[in-house]
Write a structure and sequence with these properties.
The chain has helices at residues 15-31, 100-106, 161-178, 199-213, 231-235, 239-245, 251-261, 271-284, 307-318, 321-327, 354-362, 380-389, 430-433, 435-447; strands at 39-42, 56-64, 69-76, 87-91, 110-112, 124-126, 136-140, 150-151, 159-160, 187-192, 219-225, 346-347, 367-372, 394-403, 406-414, 418-423. It is of the alpha/beta class and 451 residues long.
Length: 451
C-alpha cells in the first residue's frame, strides 16, 4: 500500500473540497458534536465474528490545547507478554493516511475479507502474523486531519513535518501518563513510507527530552520501512536505475537517460534529459508503482484480484455508524472518513532526514531500515544510497536472511547499530505483502539477534 505523497492509491481530494469539508467539520465540532470518553476498551467490533482475541483500546489525546488538536489512536496490547514486551508507536505515511492502515493492512491483527465480500459491512478476520505477537503497538492518526484526528479550530489544521513530530511527542507524554504501566517497556518508534521523514525527527526529540529534561521515555531504537528520507536527493533519483535493474526499461534507454541527465533524474538540466525521462515515464506508466509485479487496477468495481479493492473496504467500514459507535468516535468530528487524504494546509519543511539518522545513531540508538524490493515509490536503491552517504563502516557484509529455510531477503549491518534489510518480493509496505517474513525480521531485531 502506498503511503507517499505521490502514491497512486492515495485518495486525493481537491483543495476546495478539503476546505469545505474542514469548514463543515469545525462548525459541527463547535456546535453539535458530543464529547465521549477519551478512552474506550473494545471487546467486539462490527464485522468480526465473536469477541476480539486480543486487547484493543481506542481514544483521543489533545496534542495542542490552544488550537484544539485531538489525535485519535488504536492501541493493541502484545498478545505474548504486554508487561515486558516493547511498546511500538507506529506511524503511517502520506502524509494523510490513517493509522487504520497499519491495523488492518500492515502490522496489525485484523484484516478485511475481500474474497467473500458482497455488500454492506465488510467482514474482519484475525491475523496470526501480526507484530502484536511480539510488541504492544499504538497506531496513531497523524498529522491532524488524518483518519479520525481533528481540530476544533481552523488554525489547528495548519501543520507541517516538524509540527507533526512535536505533536507526536506531546501525544507520547500524555499517553504514557494515562498508561503508566508501559513507561518501563522498551520504546520504539516505527512506520513506513512518508513517515520516514518524521520517525528520525521524533526519535531525536524523544532522546533529547530524555537527556535534557529527564523525561521518562525508555527509548531503545527506531525502525522504518521503505522510508521516504530525502525525496529529491535520493528517493526519486533511484527510480530510473530501479526500473532498469528490474528490466522495465531497456539498456539503451537507461544508458541514454543516465548520460544526458548525469544521474539527476528529478530536475532535468537539458532538453535531452527531459526527453528521455518522458520516454521512461511512457514505457512504465502502466506499472503498479507500489508492487511492480501486481496488476495496476482501480478499486471500483470491486475486483477480487485488485489490492485497491481491499483498501476501499476500509472506507465502507469506517463510515458505518455502528462501527463508529463501537470505536468511540466523537459525533460530528469527521463527516466523511478517508483512508488517505491530501492535507490542504500541510508544509513540507523537512527536505532531508539523513542528518537525523546520523545524529540519533551517534547517540547509540539502534536502527532497522528495511525495503520491500519490488517497490518503486521508495526504491531500495535510493535507501542504500543515503545509508552509504553516512559513511558508516560495514560490520556484517551483504548476506541472505532466512525464514523457514528460504531466503526472505538480504541484509547488511553497519556501525552505529544500523541494520539494512530487503524483503524479497515485497512492495511498498513490506509487512502487507510478506507478513510472516516481516514478523520474523522484527522479532529478531527487537531481541538483538542477527536477522
Amino acid at each position: 500500500m502506498a503511503y507517499s505523497a505521490q502514491a497512486t492509491k492515495k485518495c486525493f481530494l481537491l483543495p476546495l473540497v478539503n476546505v469545505i469539508v474542514i469548514v463543515i467539520m469545525i462548525v459541527l465540532c463547535c456546535s453539535s458534536w458530543q464529547l465521549v470518553s477519551a478512552r474506550k476498551r473494545i471487546d467486539n467490533l462490527p464485522g468480526f465474528n465473536g469477541p476480539l482475541p486480543f486487547s484493543l483500546e481506542t481514544g483521543y489525546l489533545e496534542v495542542n490545547e490552544e488550537k484544539g488538536v485531538e489525535f485519535f489512536y488504536y492501541f493493541v496490547e502484545s498478545e505474548k507478554n504486554p508487561e515486558e514486551d516493547p511498546l511500538l508507536l507506529w506511524l503511517i505515511g502520506g502524509p494523510g493516511c490513517s493509522s487504520l492502515s497499519g491495523l488492518v493492512y500492515e502490522i496489525g491483527p485484523l484484516g478485511y475479507d475481500l474474497q467473500n465480500y458482497v455488500d454492506d459491512l465488510p467482514s474482519l478476520y484475525y491475523k496470526t502474523d501480526s507484530w502484536t505477537q511480539v510488541s504492544n503497538v499504538i497506531f496513531v492518526d497523524s498529522p491532524v486531519g488524518t483518519g479520525f484526528s481533528y481540530s476544533r479550530t481552523m488554525e489547528g489544521f495548519q501543520t507541517s513535518d516538524t509540527e507533526a513530530a512535536h505533536q507526536l511527542l506531546s501525544f507520547l507524554y500524555k499517553w504514557l501518563e494515562e498508561h503508566p504501566k508501559f513507561k518501563s517497556n522498551p520504546l520504539y518508534i516505527g512506520g513506513s513510507s512518508y513517515a520516514g521523514m518524521i520517525i528520525p525527527v521524533l526519535t531525536l526529540e524523544i532522546a533529547t527530552a530524555k537527556e535534557s529534561q529527564g523525561a521518562q521515555f525508555n527509548l531503545k531504537g527506531y525502525l522504518a520501512g521503505n522510508p521516504m528520507t530525502d525525496i529529491h536527493g535520493f528517493d526519486k533519483n533511484a527510480k530510473v536505475p530501479f526500473f532498469h535493474g528490474m528490466a522495465l526499461i531497456s539498456d539503451e534507454l537507461y544508458e541514454s537517460t543516465k548520460q544526458s541527465c548525469s544521474g539527476n533524474y528529478v530536475n532535468p538540466s537539458n532538453i535531452h534529459c527531459a526527453k528521455y525521462l518522458d520516454a521512461v515515464d511512457e514505457v512504465t506508466k502502466d506499472v503498479n508503482v507500489e508492487q511492480i509485479l501486481e496488476p495496476q487496477c482501480e478499486a471500483f468495481p470491486l475486483r477480487k484480484d485488485c489490492r485497491n479493492s481491499l483498501y476501499a473496504l476500509s472506507e465502507f467500514w469506517a463510515n458505518n455508524a455502528t462501527v463508529r459507535d463501537a470505536l468511540g468516535i466523537r459525533k460530528g468530528t469527521i463527516v466523511d472518513w478517508k483512508l488517505c487524504t491530501d492535507p490542504p494546509y500541510y508544509t513540507y519543511d523537512i527536505q532531508s532526514a539523513v542528518s537525523y539518522h546520523r545524529t540519533i545513531t551517534d547517540k547509540g540508538y539502534p536502527a532497522l531500515i528495511y525495503s520491500g524490493d519490488h517497490d518503486s515509490v521508495a526504491p531500495y536503491i535510493g535507501t542504500q544510497a543515503w545509508i552509504r552517504s553516512l559513511n558508516f563502516s560495514i560490520v556484517d557484509d551483504w548476506r541472505p536472511w532466512y525464514v523457514g529455510g528460504q531466503v526472505a531477503g538480504f541484509t547488511r549491518r553497519y556501525s552505529n547499530n544500523l541494520t539494512f534489510a530487503t524483503v524479497k518480493g515485497a512492495g511498498h509496505a513490506a509487512p502487507e505483502y510478506k507478513p510472516n517474513e516481516c514478523l520474523a525480521m522484527v522479532e529478531r531485531w527487537l531481541s538483538g539477534a542477527p536477522l
